Amino acid sequence: MSADGSAPKNPKKEPSGVDLARVALRAAKEAARARGDAAQQRKQARRGGLRSGARADGRDPMALGSAINRLITERGWETPAAVGGVMGRWPQIVGEDLAKHCVPQRYDEDERVLVVQCDSTAWATQLRHLSPALVARLNEDLGHGTVRMIKVLNPGGPPRRYGPLRAPGSTGPGDTYG
User: Fold this and answer.
1) Whose CA is closest to 105, among 58, 49, 144, 150?
2) How far apart are CA 132 and CA 5, in angstroms?
3) Residue 146: which residues within 8 A CB-CB, separation 6 or more?
4) How many CA atoms lie within 13 A of 104 on its CB side?
5) Which pick of 3, 38, 89, 142 has the fewest CB atoms within 10 Å?
6) Residue 72 and residue 65: Cα distance in Å, rounded?
7) Is the CB of residue 130 less than 8 Å from the CB of residue 98?
8) Higher local confidence (pLDDT), 20 or 48
């Protein structure tokens, strides 16, 4: 309890029902796989050790795409992998003109925020106006609620120079960006 009698606010966001279901499903799959592996090892021990046979088992070679998809699913990386794919297809999603001036920087999975850097304030303003439609389009591709918001960063100015002509208290050329 805080001083005013209200319950303290938890700064860490609790996992949603979908996230909890994903974690539970992954745990159940791993437990089933472990039980199956243990039974397989007992059976092989009775037969006299490991043998290669005509039937497929976990030791057989696997296609690279299948191995990557299995790894992504086992580790729960579906959302980050999908967002990474969006960053690779950025020009097709937002259009060539906008993609030339605005580049996705990172995705915060906890907050579900896509951070985009623009090369001028005019393009940053344009992207801010287009962001509701862009969020809807991204959620169509990735699944409902994957991207909640697009945070638009203004351009960074040139490196700050220190010298005799610098005004005291000035933050440099970045003063005009806002």
Assistant:
1) 150
2) 38
3) 79, 82, 83, 112, 138, 139
4) 22
5) 3
6) 11
7) yes
8) 20
Residue with tokens 């690779």: 88
Has residue 44 got a pLDDT over 60?
Answer: yes
More confident residue, 178 or 74: 74
Structure tokens, 69: 């998809």
Three-class HEC string of the chain: CCCCCCCCCCCCCCCCHHHHHHHHHHHHHHHHHHHHHHHHHHHHHHHCCCCCCCCCCCCCCCCHHHHHHHHHHHHCCHHHHHHHHHHHCHHHHHCHHHHHHEEEEEEECCCCEEEEEECCHHHHHHHHHHHHHHHHHHHHHHCCCCCCEEEEECCCCCCCCCCCCCCCCCCHHHHHCC
Q: Which two tokens stand for residue 147?
A: 């991207």
For the cut 80, the answer to whether the pLDDT of residue 58 exceeds it is no
Treating both helix axes as pointing N-terminal to C-terminal, what angle do 17-47 and 64-75 enclose, rounded to 10 degrees?
120
